[in-house]
Design a protein that fits this description.
Elements: H1 14-23, H2 30-49, H3 56-63, H4 77-85, E1 90-93, H5 97-100, E2 111-116, E3 119-126, E4 129-132, E5 141-143, H6 145-157, E6 161-166, H7 173-180, H8 192-217, H9 226-238, H10 244-257, H11 264-267, H12 278-300
Antiparallel strand pairs: 1-6, 2-3, 2-6, 3-4, 4-5
Helix pairs in contact: 2-4, 8-10, 9-12, 10-12
Length: 301
Amino acid sequence: MESIFHEKQEGSLCAQHCLNNLLQGEYFSPVELSSIAHQLDEEERMRMAEGGVTSEDYRTFLQQPSGNMDDSGFFSIQVISNALKVWGLELILFNSPEYQRLRIDPINEKSFICNYKEHWFTVRKLGKQWFNLNSLLTGPELISDTYLALFLAQLQQEGYSIFVVKGDLPDCEADQLLQMIRVQQMHRPKLIGEELAQLKEQRVLRTDLERVLEANDGSGMLDEDEEDLQRALALSRQEIDLEDEEADLRRAIQLSMQGSSRNISQDIPQTSGTNLTSEELRKRREAYFENHNSEVYERKF
């Protein structure tokens, strides 16, 4: 999917990302969209002025903030609509009675623009396949033909406004390439925030393991090689029912994070009926990693 253009979220510029992901290129910038918004503001001001520049309605209008943009980078549907007119494209409300009477299968359309609580994103057909190009995702999300109607219905149920994009979209590399091939997606893209949280969790867990190993072994270096450590980290995140070895290790981690200077064997509740010394805890840690490494081997082969 490298050929698919996908702008990821920056600030509140989802309208810009929505348009560029729809058109498959860097067609619009915040400056250009701001210019369209200011033009719309001026047209609205001139219409209000027709009732008299001294009228209460006109003075109230001048005191109100722009309805077409704000300082965060949000742009209205009017801005998006006017931006698309440059390319001869038109927006039609998907759930309007006029459009629904046409009974058009969504698969036969080319693209949709969706909005909910001031967030805009594009769903577009490239080649013969549909993709969710939401800028909040880490990459394009493949949508099957059979799922498209359900996906749009779900968005409507959640309160989204959906607009059909009518007209000929500009040519793009991804559309030409995907006319000839079909892609498969083994893993769905995550939300950007979820990916960052997962990376942060991995860094924190690795740091905690290094701390407890330093506290118990008197060394800041990990005994296991890098591959074994990564396997243990992944398995430790997936474990639900903690065994005694894991419980002891996690309690030691907690103590090391708190900077406790007390003897670990005095603070760990007894899960096996005996006191655990630092040497015993180290051996349990080694047994824990060996056990999980053997599980990884069995799962692989």
